[in-house]
Write a structure and sequence with these properties.
By secondary structure, the protein is mainly α. The protein contains eight helices and no strands. The protein folds into two domains: 53 residues; 163 residues, no CATH class. Helix content is 82%, strand content 0%.
């Protein structure tokens, strides 16, 4: 039986009320339409829709489990893409970029031409803020373009990815505050030489962690750019 445009529109509304993401909507909608058109008699369209949803997807609970499983898969794929992009910095030609940056950093640090810690911290903050702005603008563009569609399941994974990055940055700040607090509190107990060693080790750990986190942030931004292009083309 061939469904009319009105019947398809009604099915679209029913499916839209049932699912959360655009990808799931397309899958369930296409499956339901195909199944309904294979039937000879559709006296009660809504009941037929409910039966298909229950038999083929496990009903409302089955749909939620389907989306949760898809979220896990997409999340895993997104993190893998970010890891692959991060590894690019440790392989040619990305390794050359990394070596050049580290050489410049070492030169300025050795000759004390700049306050490297301030420059590095400022650059990381600028990178984080600019990344947030870029994401906000691109998400606004996608919402405007797809205002009549469900959000993409990729959004959930990207949000988690950026949440982890922000948490990492907060942990670094808290670690720096903790090191400063311990340095002040123990200044009257240990010799100044020990304090210099302590603060140098702590600063090295913080700088290295910030550097890795910055690379992770850049990798995430590149992955997001690629995903943005794909979703914009849909």
């Amino acid at each position: 039986m061939i469904l009319t445009k009105e019947q398809k529109a009604n099915i679209g509304v029913l499916v839209s009320n049932e699912v959360e993401y655009h990808e799931t909507y397309q899958e369930v909608y296409d499956h339901v339409i195909t199944s309904l058109e294979e039937k000879q008699d559709l006296a009660d369209l809504q009941r037929a829709y409910g039966n298909i949803l229950e038999d083929d997807f496990g009903g409302h609970y089955g749909i939620k489990m389907l989306e949760e499983n898809r979220r896990r898969i997409v999340r895993k794929e997104t993190f893998q893409k970010q890891k692959d992009q991060l590894y690019w910095f440790f392989k040619l030609p990305g390794l050359l970029v990394l070596i050049t940056f580290c050489s410049i950093y070492g030169y300025f640090y050795e000759h004390q031409l700049l306050n490297i810690n301030s420059v590095f911290s400022g650059s990381f903050i600028l990178l984080t803020i600019s990344s947030f702005i870029i994401m906000s603008i691109s998400n606004f563009i996608l919402r405007k373009k797809n205002r009549n569609r469900k959000p993409s399941i990729n959004n959930a994974s990207i949000k988690i990815m950026w949440r982890i990055t922000w948490k990492g940055y907060i942990y670094l700040v808290l670690f720096r505050v903790l090191c400063s607090f311990l340095y002040i509190q123990t200044s009257s107990i240990f010799k100044a030489d020990y304090h210099r060693v302590f603060i140098n080790i702590a600063a090295t750990i913080i700088d290295f962690a910030s550097f890795v986190l910055a690379l992770y942030l850049i990798a995430g931004l590149i992955v997001y750019k690629n995903e943005f292009k794909k979703r914009l083309a849909i």
